[in-house]
Write the structure tokens for this entry.
Amino acid sequence: MTPPRILSIAGSDSSGGAGIQADIKTITMLGGYAMTAICALTAQDTTGVSMVAASSAAMVAAQIDACVGDIGVDAVKIGMLGSPDIAEVVAERLAGLGVPIVFDPVMIATSGAALADAATIAAFERLMALATLTTPNVPELAALGGDAAMARRGIAYLAKGGDADGAEVIDRLVMPGEAERCWTAPRIATRHTHGTGCTLSSAIATLLGMGLPIDEAVEDAREFVRAALLAAPGFGKGHGPLGHQAVR
């Protein structure tokens, strides 16, 4: 069986727990073929981000063109973008591509470090309009205007509940014109949560690239993340990485 070709457009995490590194692990473990367009380099570990260097918009565009023009693409995951110029060029390159796009509107790292400025967040509008699914966590959804604003824009989104309080995690899939669907599961008590959002969004993209409908892709991706949380290797002094490789 030919693996689905999944393009991750995101930032690099030097510690390997999130970003491009988490995406490659996730895509590979789920049976996809991972390609990348790296938007930024970060120096980070499980305790925080110490330095960020954004790529040029031209370099990001060239990486996308190289992947699309030669290998081809069956689905796209978008994560950390690095600058409003990069956000705009990504939107330009993906418009009309005709494949599923999952947009994780990364604004703040698990450690609390800001990964997008106000201008970059403002540029998210076009990407959300292009995306098959946008996957904000609790603070990201609030920054994007909340449920009312997302509904007004007609955006399909998965409201992730991992950052909310409570013994259970509730994730809500909201699709324009359809009944809301919710998944509820007991919260996994662990500090090893670095890269959960990256892992979930790249898993959804991979499963969409395999042809699954959105609700099934979300359900299976959630189970993959939960398994990876339970398999965390225990690395680091802060928010440690997931155990992608241990998931079967």
